[in-house]
Every structure is written in C-alpha cells, then in structure tokens.
Write a structure and sequence with these properties.
This protein is an alpha/beta fold and about 325 residues long. The chain folds into 2 domains: about 1-150 and about 295-320, Rossmann fold (3-Layer(aba) Sandwich), CATH 3.40.50; about 150-290, 3-Layer(aba) Sandwich (Rossmann fold), CATH 3.40.50.2020. Helices cover about 30% and strands about 25% of the residues. It has helices spanning about 15-25, 65-85, 110-125, 150-160, 175-185, 230-240, 260-265, 295-305, and strands at about 10, 35-40, 45-50, 55-60, 90-95, 125-130, 145-150, 165-170, 190-195, 205-210, 215-225, 245-255, 270-275, 290. It has a 7-stranded mixed β-sheet, with helices on both faces. It is globular, with a radius of gyration of 20 Å. Bound molecules: ribose-5-phosphate. Ribose-5-phosphate binds next to β11 and α6.
C-alpha cells in the first residue's frame, strides 16, 4: 500500500448498517458515500460517490437474511470497487451465509459455501475477514488470505463477570466441541457434549450427552441460532440429564428466524447472549436477550490489517501489543 497509508476506506452494504456505523465510530472514520438501490425488478445497483483509486477498502457486509440479496450486493460492491481502481478490497463478512452447506451430506447435493467463496474471489476481492464460521475448513475454500475471528473471548469475559459457580460449558453438537473446549479452558470449567442428529433438514434430535450435568448450570456456546430447534432439543436433554434450570446460552450469529425467540423464551433459560454480527430486530429483544457488540473486534482487525500488523495477536493477551 506504498503511498496510500491514509487511503483506507470503509464501505457498508445494507446487511447490517448499525454494525457498520459502530465499526466506523470505533475507527473514527466516515463510511464512504455510495448509492445502493434495488430496481423494481429486484436488480441491485451500486455507485460510489468518492474517489477510490489506490484505496485500501474494507467492505462491511454480513451475508445474513435476506441472504441472496446481501450476497449479491456484496459481489456488486466488490465489482464496483475493482472497476474504480481500488488497490485492495477486503470483504468484512462477520456472518458468512451458506456456511452450513460446506459439504455433501448426501449424493447430488451442492457445496454452496465453496460456490460463495469462488464468487467472492471472482468478483475481485483480495482478502476476507469473517467470524465463527460454522466449519473452520471453509477458510480453505478461499485462495486469498482470510482472517477468521471469534467471539469466544468476548463471551468468556461476559460469563466470567456474570458468575461461574457450579457451571459447565456444553457443546450443543459435536461440531461445536472444539469451541466449547476452548471456552471451558478459558473459564476453567468442565465440559460436556450433546450428540444430535437431524432426521430431516432443520429438525434436531438429541441421541445422548457425553459428560455429567447433574446439579450444574450449563453455559451453551453455539455458532448459529436459526429456528432454535437445536437449542430447544439440547435444553430438554440437559434438563432430563439433571442440569439446573438455569441455562445460559451464547450464540455468535443470531438469525432467530420464525418463532425462535418464543421457543427459547422459557423459564429454564436464564440468558440468551448473542452478538451483533447480524441485526437483531427490535421485536426480537426480550428481557433475557443480551447483545454484545463485535464492532471493536472487527474495527481492531481492520486497523491491524491496514497497518500490516498481526491479527492473531488480538486473541492472545500476551501478544496484544505485538507489531
Ligand atoms: C448446526 O449444526 C449449527 O451449528 C447450529 O446448531 C444450527 O445451524 C442451528 O440451527 P437451528 O437453530 O435451526 O437448529
């Protein structure tokens, strides 16, 4: 980026305007002026009202619902920047839509998470920042650098403050066992793993729980809550296993589709802690919902990438000051 050290710019799609503004506030930078609109036939149009020549641009756009519109918007913004001679384009995609289609579970199925990666690259993106991918292996779908951040430390800090007596970290399925293990290690707690299977898509059934929950207060750490089905099945199984009716749930990406909020508003659930990687509509806010902002984490990563400093050091208190 020689000669362009100050030419780093933030540009937001329509995926999560509040998060984009919070990142801009953290970095004390304005959001680039642009027009983004949809024509009556559904096509998306983008036009940028500032000179982007030689700029290091960070496009903030989670591909959350409406997934296809937000994804298409991201691709069109990247194409606009490429044609406006931006020097480097980084897609900041805190929530990566289609991440749950990362492998074939049956013959004649797509791997859409890979298709999305190919499209982002083909559009002209040079780098990606994302968070708590459903499967870490999605990083390998890209041939460009990808910084995979996590809300884990933020979640750990939150629970450390709120009290850890007689607590246990619980993975809601085997796919989340590694993350639960890290959280348990960070909090100095034991852990358990719920084993689930899906008889049909979007339906979860618990087979068994590995670990002892009797008399303990579970802290569940999940990547995505969509219909709430996985968590509801997990809550029932944990209670049957003798867990205290004081279940705390943390989820990075709160899609909360359909009646998920109602399904999770149960007396046994004492807290639902989510982040703002995707917008949480006002009607989904309940007294038990707590939203932690990832704006400073993403802002710090953006600053470090622009400065050519380490991003992984952000997650290691001993290395935080590292160049
Ligand atoms: C899948 O295995 C994920 O980690 C989540 O458990 C799942 O996608 C959540 O979806 P839902 O809330 O619809 O069960």
């Amino acid at each position: 980026m020689a000669g362009n050290q100050n030419r780093y710019k933030l540009l937001a799609g329509n995926g999560n305007p509040d998060l984009a503004s919070a990142i801009a506030a953290y970095l004390d930078r304005p959001l680039t002026r642009r027009t983004l609109k949809q024509f009556t036939d559904g096509e998306i149009f983008c036009s940028i009202e500032e000179n982007m020549r030689g700029a290091d641009v960070f496009v903030i756009q989670p591909t959350c619902p409406p997934v296809n519109d937000n994804l298409m918007e991201l691709l069109i913004i990247i194409d606009t920047l490429k044609r406006a001679s931006a020097e480097r384009i980084t897609a900041v995609v805190p929530y990566y839509g289609y991440a749950r289609q990362e492998k074939k579970d049956a013959p004649r199925e797509p791997i859409t998470a890979r298709l999305v990666a190919d499209m982002i690259e083909a559009a002209g993106c040079h780098r990606v920042i994302t968070m708590d991918l459903h499967a870490g292996a999605i990083q390998g779908f890209f041939d460009i650098p990808i910084d995979h951040l996590t809300a884990l430390s933020m979640v750990a800090e939150y629970f450390r403050q709120s009290g850890l007596e007689r607590s246990i970290v619980v993975a809601p399925d085997t796919g989340r066992a590694k993350a639960a293990e890290k959280l348990a290690a960070e909090l100095g707690l034991p852990m358990a793993v719920i084993h689930k299977h899906r008889p049909v898509q979007q339906q979860a059934e618990v087979t068994h729980i590995a670990g002892e929950l009797h008399g303990l207060r579970p802290i569940v750490f999940e990547d995505i809550v969509s219909t709430g089905g996985t968590l509801v099945a997990g809550i029932d199984a944990m209670l049957q296993a003798g867990a205290e009716p004081d279940i705390r749930i943390a989820v990075t990406h709160a899609l909360l589709t359909g009646n998920a909020v109602e399904r999770l508003t149960r007396p046994e659930v004492s807290e639902l802690v989510v982040t703002d990687t995707v917008p949480v509509a006002p009607e989904k806010h309940t007294p038990k919902l707590r939203v932690l902002s990832v704006a400073s984490l993403l802002g710090e990563a953006i600053q470090r990438i622009h400065d050519g400093r380490s991003v992984s050091a952000l997650f290691d208190p001993k290395r935080r000051g590292e160049a």
